[in-house]
């Protein structure tokens, strides 16, 4: 998950490895993939939290999980991205090789093909409504892929795609910590409304972290979706968070219409977004202070939208 999206907030990594740097990557590539040993290695502009990412030459990237909690995502992406890619309308990362522990680094790691593009920040998007419908088309295609043998939501997906109850205690704790800095009763109403719902249809594929940092644009248009580390099979409501973190107004409505989202699923998508905004704003995640202001704006938008529709 790259910095710039909401995926840059640390969540459940058990242990962080702070010495992941260019020299380590060079040693790993040299010893395990000597055919690429002469290619230059340099950090990407936004290296992310869950994974540290580096350019390998001009056409590849190396990604190393930053902690043990993210390690299961490596094999999952190598197993499933080649299966999903042919059915999707936009490019996704292509796994080229999977490295193993070595040079003092204790986890499996990956080499991927590089996809050219910039993070989907608002000022880079030419037509936000068109962007929203293109993204909805991608997610619709993802949900249509046969999910029979796919990985059920769980720890590997940070429980995205699973029931909201997983984060019930954490959400209530954040509301308590924030006190009168937020309209706590309204926040609790948003959360409890969503808890009364559930995905009662066949489980489908979800991305798990549809954030601006994982959406690439060129010339103002969406051209690729990256980082499937939190992907899995379950309730796709978690993929709706982008409606509040990046979209607004007409573009948010277009996104919902194109995905044909019912009221209960929309409520759970809102609640997933609320949970992350609350725990970051309350300082429960270890995220940098600048993130708190961003999540406060998201929180304000969530509560305002809920009050408009509920009233």
Mean pLDDT: 92
Radius of gyration: 19 Å
How much strand content do the residues show? Answer: 5-15%
Q: What is the CATH first-level class name of the largest domain?
A: Alpha Beta
Strand order of the largest sheet: 1-2-3-5-4
Helix content range of the residues, please?
A: 25-40%
Number of strands: 10
What is the tally of helical segments?
A: 9
Low-confidence segments, given as residue ranges, are 1-14
CATH architecture of the largest domain: Alpha-Beta Complex
CATH topology of the largest domain: Aminoglycoside 3'-phosphotransferase, Chain: A, domain 2
Structural class by secondary-structure content: alpha+beta
| CATH homologous superfamily (4th level) name of the largest domain | Aminoglycoside phosphotransferase (APH), C-terminal lobe
What does this structure look like?
This protein is an alpha+beta fold and 311 residues long. It has two domains: 6-115, Phosphorylase Kinase, domain 1 (2-Layer Sandwich); 119-310, Alpha-Beta Complex (Aminoglycoside 3'-phosphotransferase, Chain: A, domain 2), CATH 3.90.1200.10. The protein has helices at residues 22-32, 72-84, 128-144, 168-178, 184-195, 242-245, 249-259, 263-281, 289-310; strands at residues 41-43, 51-56, 60-65, 95-99, 109-113, 118-119, 204-206, 215-218, 221-225, 232-234. The strands form three sheets. Strands 1-2-3-5-4 form a five-stranded antiparallel sheet, sandwiched between helices. The protein has a three-stranded antiparallel sheet with strand order 6-8-9, with helices on one face. A two-stranded antiparallel ribbon has the order 7-10. Strand 8 (215-218) and strand 9 (221-225) form a beta hairpin. Helix 3 runs parallel beside helix 7 (249-259), helix 5 packs across helix 8 (263-281) and helix 8 (263-281) runs antiparallel to helix 9 (289-310). It is globular and about 65 Å long. The protein starts with 21 loop residues before the first helix and ends with a helix. The relative contact order is 0.16.
């Amino acid at each position: 998950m790259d910095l710039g999206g909401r995926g840059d907030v640390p969540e459940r990594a058990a242990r962080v490895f702070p010495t992941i740097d260019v020299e380590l990557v060079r040693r790993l590539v040299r010893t395990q993939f000597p055919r690429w040993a002469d290619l230059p290695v340099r950090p990407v502009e936004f290296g992310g939290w869950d994974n540290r990412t580096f350019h390998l030459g001009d056409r590849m990237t190396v990604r190393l999980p930053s902690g043990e909690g993210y390690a299961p995502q490596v094999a999952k992406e190598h197993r499933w991205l080649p299966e999903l890619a042919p059915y999707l309308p936009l490019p996704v990362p292509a796994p080229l090789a999977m490295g193993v522990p070595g040079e003092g680094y204790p986890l499996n790691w990956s080499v991927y093909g590089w996809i050219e593009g910039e993070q989907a920040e608002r000022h880079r998007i030419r037509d936000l409504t068109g962007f929203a419908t293109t993204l909805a088309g991608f997610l619709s295609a993802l949900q249509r892929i046969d999910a029979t043998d796919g990985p059920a939501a769980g720890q590997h997906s940070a429980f995205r795609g699973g029931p909201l109850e997983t984060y019930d205690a954490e959400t209530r704790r954040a509301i308590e910590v924030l006190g009168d800095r937020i309209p706590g009763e309204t926040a609790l109403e948003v959360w409890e409304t969503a808890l009364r719902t559930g995905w009662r249809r066949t489980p489908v594929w979800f991305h798990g972290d549809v954030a601006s940092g994982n959406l690439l644009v060129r010339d103002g248009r969406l051209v690729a979706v990256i980082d499937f580390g939190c992907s899995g099979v379950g309730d796709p409501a978690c993929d709706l968070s982008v409606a509040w973190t990046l979209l607004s107004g007409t573009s948010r409505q277009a996104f919902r219409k194109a995905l044909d989202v019912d009221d209960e699923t929309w409520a759970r998508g809102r609640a997933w977004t609320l949970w992350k905004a609350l725990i970051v704003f309350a300082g429960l995640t270890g995220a940098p202070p600048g993130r708190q202001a961003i999540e406060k704006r998201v929180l304000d938008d969530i509560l305002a939208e809920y009050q408009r529709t509920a009233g």
